[in-house]
Specification:
Elements (H helix, E strand, L loop, with lengths): L1 H6 L3 H12 L6 H12 L19 H22 L3 H9 L2
Helix pairs in contact: 2-3
GO cellular component, one term: site of double-strand break
Protein name: HTH_48 domain-containing protein
GO molecular function: DNA topoisomerase binding; double-stranded DNA binding; histone H3K36 methyltransferase activity; histone H3K4 methyltransferase activity; single-stranded DNA binding; single-stranded DNA endodeoxyribonuclease activity
């Protein structure tokens, strides 16, 4: 894109050339336009701007507290309801 920008190629033609070279719908007019605006502003580094969601602000420790409180309770339930396979086998075939 920077090459085409420096040649004076417009956004539509640049988009067309890139898509012809690399495959249909590889780049959109709006993407090329955004890059051209950066180039016009004098920003010629080719790194993408960070985009995405803002930080959630959720504290992992706060999420873990209820799990820790219930851990002893849940492990007790699992211990009383789970029978090791060998003991289960013996109990089944001992009859």
């Amino acid at each position: 894109m920077l090459y085409e920008f420096k040649l004076g190629t417009n956004v539509a033609k640049t988009t067309q050339k890139i898509n012809e070279a690399f495959g249909e719908d590889v780049v959109s007019n709006s993407t090329v336009k955004r890059w051209f605006q950066k180039f016009i502003a004098g920003i010629e580094d080719l790194d993408n701007d960070e985009r995405g969601r803002p930080p959630l602000g959720i504290d992992d420790d706060e999420l873990k507290k209820p799990l820790k409180r219930n851990q002893m309770y849940l492990s007790g339930i699992l211990q009383t309801s789970w029978i090791p396979p060998v003991q289960q086998f013996i109990a089944t075939y001992r009859r």
